[in-house]
Design a protein that fits this description.
about 20% helix; Pnp Oxidase, Chain A; alpha+beta; globular; 7-stranded antiparallel β-sheet; single chain
C-alpha cells in the first residue's frame, strides 16, 4: 500500500472503521461549499472513500459540474478526535460498484439500506489524509507527599 491514507497510523485507519456520522463537502458551480451529513466507508488499500447517495442529490450535481477535477472532502469528528480525507470524486452508477458500496456501508454502520434504483456511489480518490485520532490518556494526579 502506498497512497495518502495507507501511510497513516493504525489508530487513524481504525477511526475510519468506527461508527461515526460524517460530512461531505462539495463545491457548487459558483464556488460556495455544500456540506451535508453522510455515511462514508474507506478502503485504505485502494486509496478510496465511498459515499452512497441518490443520483438526484445536490452533491451529485456538484460533482458532475466539477468534471474530472471535482474536489471534495469527507470528515468525521468524535470529541477531540477528527479525520479529514480530501480528493477527487467521481459518480459511479454501475451495479457492481453500487452493490459493493452498499455492502461496505452495511459493514461499517450495522445496517444495509433498502434497495433504491436511484442509488449511485461517490468514489473519492484520496489525495490527502489529515487528522488527530489517538485517544488522549486521562491525566493522573499525584498525591502530595
Amino acid at each position: 500500500m502506498s497512497n495518502a491514507i495507507s501511510s497513516q497510523a493504525d489508530d487513524y485507519l481504525e477511526f475510519w472503521n468506527e461508527y461515526h456520522l460524517c460530512t461531505l463537502t462539495t463545491l457548487r458551480p459558483d464556488g460556495r461549499p455544500h456540506v451535508v451529513p453522510v455515511g462514508v466507508t474507506v478502503d485504505a488499500a485502494a486509496g478510496v472513500a465511498r459515499v452512497i447517495t441518490r443520483k438526484s442529490s445536490r452533491k451529485v450535481a456538484n460533482i458532475l459540474a466539477g468534471g474530472s477535477a471535482a474536489r471534495v472532502a469527507v470528515c468525521q469528528v468524535d470529541g477531540g478526535r477528527w479525520a479529514t480525507l480530501e480528493g477527487v470524486a467521481e459518480v459511479r452508477t454501475d451495479a457492481a460498484v453500487v452493490e459493493d458500496a452498499v455492502a461496505r456501508y452495511g459493514q461499517r454502520y450495522g445496517r444495509t439500506p433498502a434497495p433504491d434504483p436511484e442509488r449511485v456511489v461517490l468514489l473519492v480518490s484520496i489525495e490527502r489524509a489529515m487528522g488527530q485520532t489517538f485517544r488522549a490518556r486521562p491525566q493522573t494526579t499525584q498525591a502530595a507527599a
